[in-house]
Amino acid sequence: MISNFVLYLLYGVVYGLTYPIRILSDVSLSSDFTSTITTFNNYLAGLNFIFPLSTLITIIGLFLGIEVFILLYKIMNWLIRKIPMIS
Fold first, then answer.
1. Residues 14-32 pLDDT 10s
2. Which of 27, 28, 29 is nearest to 37 (CA)?
3. Which of 71, 41, 39 is nearest to 53 (CA)?
4. Per-residue DSSP letter, 23
5. What are the residue ranges spanned by the domains of the chain?
6. Side-chain half-sphere of 65: how many Cα atoms within 13 Å?
7. d(Cα 76, Cα 85) in Å, to the nearest integer?
8. How far is CA 45 from CA 18, 48, 54, 60, 61, in A?
9. Which end of the chain is more exposed for a tag (fewer CB within 10 A), N or C?
10. HSE on the CB side for 20, CA within 13 Å?
11. Phi and psi of 65, rounded to 5°?
């Protein structure tokens, strides 16, 4: 009984929060854009035969993650040096 009430309450909150999105009209892609995606996918299929794209995307993601971490570390150090009492 109580769990049903909690679930209905959560459903109502999510339903209310998504209301602005649900009142918008449906969207569809134009045929030109869809054909462009299909053509790009065909080009990538040839490249995927030589070098697996999932591996390439994973390596690029790891590289960008490390670079973002280094950038945030440098920004935090710069901010700490700008505070007169700490440095």
1. 999 999 999 998 888 889 9
2. 29
3. 41
4. T
5. 43-87
6. 6
7. 15
8. 37, 5, 12, 19, 20
9. N
10. 1
11. -65, -45
Rg (CA), the chain: 24
In this predicted model, what pLDDT tens digit does every residue of 30-79 receive, in sequence order? 899 999 999 998 888 888 888 888 898 999 999 999 999 999 999 999 99
Residues sharing a CB contact under 8 Å with residue 86, sequence separation 6 or more, in sequence order:
80
What whole-number distance in Å separates Cα of residue 57 and Cα of residue 71? 21
The first and second tokens of residue 18, run together, are 């998504």
- Of 55, 77, 59, the residue nearest 67 (C-alpha): 59
